[in-house]
Write a structure and sequence with these properties.
single chain, alpha+beta, about 15% helix
């Protein structure tokens, strides 16, 4: 999971988000089934949804900043382009 976290951190930097210190990661479960992961930093968070092949980046106030498409689900490498939230 470090690859996904590091990739999300690079996206934060590219978008001008100072995420702060990494605080942890949580597995997301629905009805006992794995659905994704939530990554928390002191001033930002990201949620990766396995089924949607997408990660969403949020700033420190919880506002959606970007949606990032997953290129390769097996390696969890993210696309270098993102769609900024309106």
């Amino acid at each position: 999971m470090p690859l996904l976290r590091e990739t999300l951190e690079r996206h934060c930097t590219r978008l001008g988000i100072d995420a702060g210190d990494f605080e942890g990661v949580s597995m997301l479960l629905r009805d006992g089934h794995f659905t994704g992961r939530r990554f928390r930093w002191s001033r930002a968070q990201a949620v990766w949804f396995a089924e949607e092949s997408e990660a969403k980046l949020y700033d420190g106030q919880g506002r959606l900043v970007a949606r990032i498409a997953v290129v390769d689900a097996s390696s969890r490498e993210l696309a270098t382009t993102s769609r900024h939230a309106a």
